[in-house]
Amino acid sequence: MNYLKKLTVIIASLATASSLYAHSHDPFEKVQITSINVNNGIHMLMGQGGNIGLSVGEDGIFMIDDQFAPLSKKIKTSISKISKKPIKFLINTHWHFDHTGGNENFAKDGIVIVSHDNVRKRMSKDNFIKAFNKKIPAAKKVALPMVTFNDSISFFLNNEEIEIIHQSNAHTDGDSVVFFKTSNVIHTGDIYFNGFYPFIDSSSKGSIDGVIKSVNYILTRVDDKTKIIPGHGKLSNKNELINYRDTLVILRDRMKSLVKEGKTVEEVVALKPNADLDKTWGKGFLNPEKFLRILYDVVKSNN
Ligand SMILES: [Zn+2]
């Protein structure tokens, strides 16, 4: 009796443990990949992590970013529903693991991965993101970009001219923005978080001035018809990007003056200096307090 009771308890706790295990180890199980036909053979895929961009046509598939490794299979299935052509190139807009996590799974298919020099450099070693107190081990060799560039690189396929331009010290020190010149579509990488407070990675030499500079540059290359794929958030346009830029300028100026006054991060948090903006921008990836702490650190480390 006692033995049986004990056994039942053990089995029950094992079942709980294994279901907890399964639950905690597959946070991607329920993620679905959705796609939007943006314009003229350009598609945007959303799942979890950075938005994926695709140019699809007679020459094959050109892909931007690849989210997390456990999603690679679903992403490949989703792409195969759009085109049966092979993926030829995969661009990493920057090194963060929610944009490069699938690299190994795509490289193994023979796809050439391309990035700015600093993306390969950062992925080749262990990294630490101070804002989230997170260590990220070096990527396997197979997951590293095979081709890197310094300032810019161009691709010509699917009757499209694709220009990729490095943006120095913005979200990180290795950001690229992708311009589909023929189709008037832009993939901004994490220079642009559409509709919520952005993350800027000071541990990877990111800066708020760099993000604003980059957004201003992108704005010189858009018109009223340009479709903008942000790093995170919904498909966007010129007016929304202008609004984002204007908000970033306000946020930066407020934080710069608080830092100049010698306020500590706790004092800044207590002041709630962005209470007027929090309702609109503070419901996304970063809540108002977390964003303030990150921005404080970014502004301080740039001074
Ligand atoms: Zn990022």
List the helices and strands and how they pair.
Blueprint: H1 2-25, E1 34-39, E2 42-46, E3 52-57, E4 60-64, H2 72-82, E5 87-91, H3 97-100, H4 103-107, E6 112-116, H5 117-123, E7 127-129, E8 134-136, E9 147-149, E10 152-157, E11 160-167, E12 175-180, E13 185-187, H6 208-219, E14 227-229, H7 238-260, H8 265-271, H9 275-281, H10 288-302
Parallel strand pairs: 4-5, 5-6, 6-9, 13-14
Antiparallel strand pairs: 1-2, 2-3, 3-4, 7-8, 10-11, 11-12, 12-13
The biggest beta sheet reads:
7 strands, mixed
Proportion of β residues? 15-25%
The neighbouring-strand order within the major sheet is 1-2-3-4-5-6-9
Taking the alpha carbons of the first and last residues, their distance comes to 71 Å
Give the helix/strand class. Answer: alpha/beta
Q: What share of residues is helical? A: 25-40%
Enumerate the spans where pLDDT stays under 50 for 5 or more consecutive residues: 7-20
Briefly, what CATH class? Alpha Beta
User: Secondary-structure element order, as H and E?
Assistant: HEEEEHEHHEHEEEEEEEHEHHHH
Overall CATH architecture: 4-Layer Sandwich
Count of alpha and pi helical runs: 10
Number of domains: 1
The CATH superfamily is: Ribonuclease Z/Hydroxyacylglutathione hydrolase-like
Radius of gyration: 21 Å
Overall average residue pLDDT: 93
Under CATH, the topology can be stated as Metallo-beta-lactamase, Chain A
Overall geometric form: globular
Structure description:
- With about 300 residues, the chain is of the alpha/beta class.
- The strands form 3 sheets. Strands 1-2-3-4-5-6-9 form a 7-stranded mixed beta sheet. It has a 5-stranded mixed beta sheet with strand order 10-11-12-13-14. Strands 7-8 form a two-stranded antiparallel sheet.
- It has 10 helices and 14 strands.
- The chain has a single domain, classed as Metallo-beta-lactamase, Chain A.
- It is about 40% helix and about 20% strand.
- The protein starts with a helix and ends with a helix.
- It has helices at about 1-25, 70-80, 95-100, 105, 115-125, 210-220, 240-260, 265-270, 275-280, 290-300; strands at about 35-40, 40-45, 50-55, 60-65, 85-90, 110-115, 125-130, 135, 145-150, 150-155, 160-165, 175-180, 185, 225-230.
- A hairpin with a 2-residue loop joins strand 3 (about 50-55) and strand 4.
- Bound molecules: zinc ion (ZN).
- Zinc ion binds near residues 94, 96, 171 and 190.
